[in-house]
Design a protein that fits this description.
By secondary structure, the chain is mainly α. It is 76% helix and 3% strand. The protein contains ten helices and three strands; from the N terminus they run βααβαααβααααα.
Length: 312
């Protein structure tokens, strides 16, 4: 069919979360609570770290990057999903759909790479403690952080460009609660082989490479911890690693299920995706705060300072 005969799609309709008729108000309340907790928890970590000079170290610098990412990542799909649930506003412009695809893969990929950098930081701190300040100096930290953001923007630009270069001329109903590559590409009336191949390769390759690098770091870390003579040293080293491993598992678990199991049923894929988009960004600050005395101490100092200033 000639391109001239097509009617170009200028907006999409998000069909939302399937099988939730009559439960919209309850879901809106639950997801709003999660989203507010995500924003508040991550903002508190940012304020605590920036306000306490003792926390101006590589580990907390990367934790601040993670907090910014969690705020952004949860904001890609959650506000639109909430609008869909509350006022049934299912329409999203072509530009809005492109933005969701770009930022979802940009921030998701950045988070994936950042977890790898954080694993390298723990490896340097535990396996090479005497050279740690030289290995992870300010310049190296800034370059590693900037590298994760830049590489991911390139990755997301390729995926978004390939997705929206395709002609969209038939149905504009996206059978999902936000614009992601696979639900959108289903609506294209052109050949989708290239975008599907690139998507599976890129989206599979980036997390798999990151996961293997993290695994390699932790094998070395575990060996180093077991060789430590001090029980207190072992406990402290293990404690910082458990927090990081917990958030890595929460991130890579849903990611692996969604993108390595194309046959995952509709019943399972949406809850898994919602968990990754809405719940994980809220749990990250909780995990780091509950398991970290230094962050808890900074938050207490911050609360104490607020109470003191109010007393005056």
């Amino acid at each position: 069919m000639a391109m001239g005969n097509h009617t170009s799609v200028t907006e999409f309709i998000l069909l939302g979360i399937p099988h939730t008729e009559g439960q919209e108000t309850t879901l809106f309340a639950v997801f709003s609570f999660f989203y507010l907790c995500t924003l508040l928890g991550n903002l508190l970590i940012l304020v605590a770290v920036t306000s306490d000079p003792h926390l101006h170290t590589p580990m907390y610098f990367f934790l601040c990057n993670l907090s910014v990412l969690d705020i952004g990542f949860s904001s890609v799909s959650t506000p639109k999903m909430l609008a869909n649930l509350l006022v049934r506003n299912r329409v999203i412009s072509l530009g809005g759909c492109m933005s969701q695809v770009f930022f979802y893969h940009f921030l998701g990929s950045t988070e994936c790479l950042l977890y790898t950098v954080m694993a390298y930081d723990r490896f340097a701190a535990i396996c090479h403690p005497l050279h740690y300040t030289i290995i992870m100096n300010h310049r190296v930290c800034a370059l590693l952080a900037a590298g994760t953001w830049f590489t991911s923007s390139f990755h997301a630009t390729i995926l978004t460009t390939l997705t929206f270069q395709l002609p969209y001329c038939g149905s504009n109903e996206v059978d999902y609660f936000f614009c992601d590559i696979f639900p959108v590409v289903k609506l294209a009336c052109g050949n989708t082989f290239i975008i599907e191949t690139v998507s599976f390769t890129n989206i599979g390759l980036v997390p798999m490479t990151c996961f293997l690098l993290i695994l390699a770091s932790y094998v070395r870390i575990v060996i180093a911890i077991l060789k430590m003579h001090s029980a207190e040293g072992r406990r402290k080293a293990a404690s910082t690693c458990v927090s990081h491993l917990s958030v890595v598992t929460l991130f890579f678990g849903p990611c692996a299920l969604i993108y390595t199991q194309p046959s995952l049923t509709e019943v399972l894929v949406t809850p898994v995706q919602i968990f990754g988009n809405v719940v994980t960004p809220m749990l990250n600050p909780t995990i780091y705060t509950l398991r970290n005395k230094e962050v808890k101490g900074a938050l207490k100092k911050l609360a104490g300072g607020q109470i003191a200033s109010e007393g005056h």
